[in-house]
């Protein structure tokens, strides 16, 4: 028969399918003042740190930043660099390493609009979006001072409700994806799938690209299906100094260095935070990896996980 | 080249599916599933096919008759739960949803629940419909029926299981539904549309070898009279791909 | 040191931990008139068919049955055997094999209270329970006749809402579990996790028990965590004549036989449905497996999947 | 046998955890996590431990300091998403939740957000709290603080991040909260309770080697005066299991 394709359906489909792989700059294009950006991960794990640095290199400012319920390094860095106008957050810290110095300072100096959140108000707000609702009940927020101070929770006649949150863009980091945007978290997916579902645009940096056949061999490992994803950016060690679950540990030494720089008083022997930005942010990813210790350091972080 | 009614319908439905769309299949959905897989391998490689069981972009060796057969999962790209599908729908991400019906009416309303008057036991009890909400949330609805008869194609459904254009005109929008609703209905006899402004079923094209009178007789409501354009017959490429890639075991031919 | 345990934490914990493995009869004890029972699976796949037969053998009646949004064989069987007082369902059919004869007959004879549902009203009702709410908005049910005929959807001032559904017990079938109740679906988990989360008691029949070490080797495969599960009943081919995803195919021949028996008119050469109950329901699982064709038939169903 | 403050606290907290319970750990939670793993290996083998990252019943080789370290997932039993945790909480399945605080007050209210008067920039900005709702939904709340000082233990928190007994007595119930709230607060100096009917913090027992005056000085609100019962010191079995099984690298000792 004339019309019979010579290859299997799969091969044809794969051949003709649009790849979502792109450069970091293309993926992040358009993110700027007033963008509501959701940043994935949790604390200093699985965070799209390289993407955040790229945004800062591009001079981003005026962001409305929605952090995954517990956030850390990248939130502090964005705030410290002056890129954030409004922060929707439940938690910013470095856990046992300490508080988030730039977040704390900006809050205490009232340089930042902070919308107090909680896992329930963030998830409730995202779920409202997913379910086509203007807001979502979060009865368990009763009797907190968030009710008096946060616009992310309203008291209705039937109790507290979280208004819908629809991020303009979610920027996530995962370990693996194929070029069609099927994403695999090798540890916690946590809030990332719901960010992906609720956001208008989804950018995922991954430590490595895998074949579509790898995805299809274990479909239960796909944590975010391709149809939710707009851009896949392969970026080995793209989470550093944060960890990438299952692949490499967070770089505690670098985080401590960051904390010292970010916590130093202004003008203390030259601005330590400005120096941090110069040394570790305003440079491309390859140079960055070199500067934080190169292969030797990265191998050591891999080892800690193995 | 000869083909079965169901092969024809799969080909005609495939032509309605566009590259890059996200579509959900329903129950007893060999025709829509075949159509979607066919579209993927012809003009819509980036079409996302979501099975009612949650399998995303399956890569079956053949056409399994049960839409939730476990074999659809082997080699698919992701597995969604019922909650994922619920969200996908409510969030307005679905581009299309395919529905059949025990009754379908002029305005594309769907009855899969029951016939007979309200308040009495049903004259006929249908299977019901699990994905009603997608008739409201999917950007457009695609109807199909292998049973083109006056019993199925009725003036007004006895029970609105899922809304089409309600009583036509702007009624759907006035009910607060923002999506486009039924855009096409495919049967073995013809392809129907729901043109503005009335949104009532009209014949878009008459299928190959069918007499107009047969369509008029088989339809339980008035249609704008012939002549009607002719449906472009399945091409060799369409049938070839359908048989060699999608439906290797000839489920749609039997 | 005197107090140092001689085994690892894991071994000790495992040793001391309560096994949730029990017999079918123990697991199903207490299910009776007015019990709101949620039955998992979808269509004629992953359904706890052996558990349903055990309930019927025990003479269960007066059930309030909540089916997974698309249901099939077991719903029809329970209705045909007269065990169901109220049915919450979105869909009952045998897909391409035909309609559900006993469901249809009971409905047409008004022998059954049917609460018309939809995936959205079932999930909305379950989510209301999960989220501690009296009901959950389901805006997409607008303009349907469910609004006039179903108590599982109410029209509020802000649109349709599904009242909370809290099953007394969920009876599910999955492929694998460990003895602590960690469940693994090898195909669709579909509605089962949300049934497990929303139900007061959770019983899972599984084709095979796996070790806790197997679960821990691939924690991402756990579809229902052990803390949600009350009883694990190992029951090879416990879903037959339905399929068990990844292990064996549905038995289309048996389903056709069932459909013929269930669809036969009363008194047609002896009541075919009563005969079906006698031949295939009122007997223990081992005898049942023998009667449906034994090892040869079961091997063939395995083969169809492999 | 000597032990560190944090070892002591882990042991004392472990004693509060019961077999068969489901408990959630928070951030910076080495002590609660160690306590839960210790309880699992002593008297509560059926305790379910849920890490804030979603790892269920982890089986770590050692105590990782970050509660969401990827290594908690290796060998755990299940992985929940943020949504699973949300549901687990809202559905009332959690038996206990452990909280620290920037400020904790007499009635067990928790401030992790900010100090200083409302309407002004915060005097001190805390990290915030991701799991506030669990203070309402978990059947009971267990408090702990390594920093037992008048700055932490205040008469009234400046900001109620998560509610304890509010202003005491029946106030919690009157606010519509059905769960029991804070039951215990563990510090290096003492174990506190919140007895009926006032639900204000009192000393349940004084930790080994601590003078009562030190507790009174370190607490920024009035306490019923001594004498107080003595805390049972950690046993050899408790410390042995803690060091040999849970915290092999001595994180809590350093």
Automatic annotation (TrEMBL), chains A, C:
UniProt entry tagged with the keyword Transferase: yes
Keywords of the record: Transferase
InterPro entries reported in the protein's UniProt record: CoA_trans_fam_I (IPR004165), NagB/RpiA_transferase-like (IPR037171)
Pfam families membership: CoA_trans (PF01144)
GO molecular function: transferase activity
Entry-linked SUPFAM superfamilies: NagB/RpiA/CoA transferase-like
Similarity annotation: Belongs to the 3-oxoacid CoA-transferase subunit B family.
Protein name: CoA transferase subunit A
Originating species: Prauserella endophytica
